[in-house]
Amino acid sequence: MNKQKKITDTLDQQVQLLKDKKNIILQGAPGTGKTYTTASLAVHLCNPSFTELGDHAKVMEEYERLRKEGQIAFCTFHQSMDYEDFVEGLKPELQESHVTYKVEAGIFKQVCERAHTAEGKDIIACIDDYLQKIRGYENRREIPTITGKSKLFVWWEEGNKTISTRSVRAISHNTEQYSPSPLNIDKVKAQALGERTENNWPAYARAFIEAVKEEYQMDEVTSSKPHVLIIDEINRGNISRIFGELITLLEADKRTGGGAHPIKVTLPYSKESFSVPANLHIIGTMNTTDRSTGAIDYAVRRRFAFITLEASREVVEGSIQDKGVQAKALALFDEINGKGADDKTSFIATHQAGDFDLEDLKVGHSYFIAKDLPELQRKMRYEVIPLLREYIKDGILQAKEGDGEYFSAWEQGECRGPKQAVESKDPEADKE
User: Could you give the count of Cα atoms lying within 13 Å of 187 in the half-sphere of its Cβ?
Assistant: First the structure.
């Protein structure tokens, strides 16, 4: 099997799992290619006709194109991230001499909005058509507010860059056509696309967008165009806190537009009706040796499928052109990680401590890929050795006599060698 076909077959299996489960996490030790694999997966899902999956530069070029078009979004979780950052929250804004607060959509809400847009029913075209229906005060419509507790008058004067709105309860001391809360049309369209918010009257803008969707029955047709949200270092954040009540909506059967039991919730700040579309897929990455994070709880785990990426000797071999450098890199890979799953003589196997699996402790293949010997030496000195020292410091590897000899040899791009690796014998045994 050639390299290109093997890559494609592996990605096909992973994409199918992503389509079925909707949410997956790529887990593994540092350097196993988790972040790059998310890009390949996202590209393969969003553009199945893209065939050059073995070309790193072209994959990243296509990834960037899809990101700019809004099909792929990326974020990184961290320990101070919360629901208000990820879904929506109140953000302060200085207006003239006083501070006001507005509801601002987070990346998850934005990407859900983009994924919801139905194919064949362009929200922008529908807004433009709706404006023609409410052209002139005499053609004004009554639409419900987001909370449903009141209603708004909406109308549009031809040529204006704003939509006129007024609460039906408002008492105007001006003309009948006075609008105390005009909506900027371009900003309303941007809000409908999930790009940004109509910052002056976001709740009224959302009410208007919902009225347009209702008019053209847009919620009844969900886009099949795949969208991907990549969450790097997903286990560094408190996932339950960040997703909040939306954790339930992540399940495949709870999605709108394809789920057997679709669910909508009312968001706490904007009071908008919210759901997660079936065409949104989430790919997380997780470093299995990161002890600074808490464990992922069972409620989260059962909503994700897990794919483990392993340190690959084959990747090292196929990524280095210089045969001399390749030989040294492979020898170092073998001495540190082992020649196979059953090799108990490697540095990692002989230093293993705690409750980590051997595979979780291996040094990923990206640390061994170098174009020449000086680069390999730099990687060993400034990346691999510090990583292993950190493992020893954290107690997930145990220190042993002779470690300094390993590290000194590796800094030169050389192995310690089998002769030096032999454990010292009992001196009394030599007398027998």
Answer: 16
**CA 393/CA 307 separation, integer angstroms:** 28
Torsion of CA 287, 235, 90, 144, to 10 degrees: 110
pLDDT at position 121, please? 56
CA distances from 128 to 99, 134, 188, 218, 269 (A): 34, 10, 11, 15, 28
Task: Give start and end residues of each alpha helix (H) in 117-179.
Answer: 123-133
379-385: average pLDDT: 97
Confidence of residue 423 (pLDDT cuts 50, 70, 90): very low
What span, in angstroms and rounded, lies between the C-alpha atoms of 10 and 67?
A: 23
The reported pLDDT for the residue numbered 292 is 52
Q: CA-to-CA distance for 57 and 89, rounded, in angstroms?
A: 37
State the amino acid at position 343 in one-letter form.
D
Question: How far is 356 from 140, CA to CA, in rounded Å?
Answer: 66
89, HSE (Cβ side, Cα atoms, 13 Å): 15
Report the range out of 116-130, 197-211, 388-402 with the highest average pLDDT.
388-402
Buried b (16+ CB within 10 A) or exposed e, 68-87: eebbbbbbebeeebebbbbb
CB 231 within 8 A of CB 77: yes
pLDDT tens-digit map of 304-348: 999 999 999 999 998 999 999 999 999 999 999 998 878 889 999
Minimal CA–CA distance to 208: which of 267, 303, 128, 97?
Answer: 128
- Helix (H), strand (E) at residue 341: none
Per the DSSP assignment, residues forming a β-bridge with 101 are 92
Using a CB cutoff of 8 Å and minimum separation of 24, what contacts does 275-279 make? Answer: 275/112, 275/116, 275/249, 276/112, 276/246, 276/249, 276/250, 277/112, 277/115, 277/116, 277/222, 277/223, 277/227, 278/22, 278/222, 278/252, 279/115, 279/222, 279/223, 279/224, 279/225, 279/226, 279/227
Decide: 19 and 281 in contact? Cβ < 8 Å.
Answer: yes
CA–CA distance, 129 with 120 (Å, rounded to integer): 14
Q: Please report which confidence band the pLDDT of residue 373 belongs to, taking 50, 70 and 90 as the band edges.
A: very high
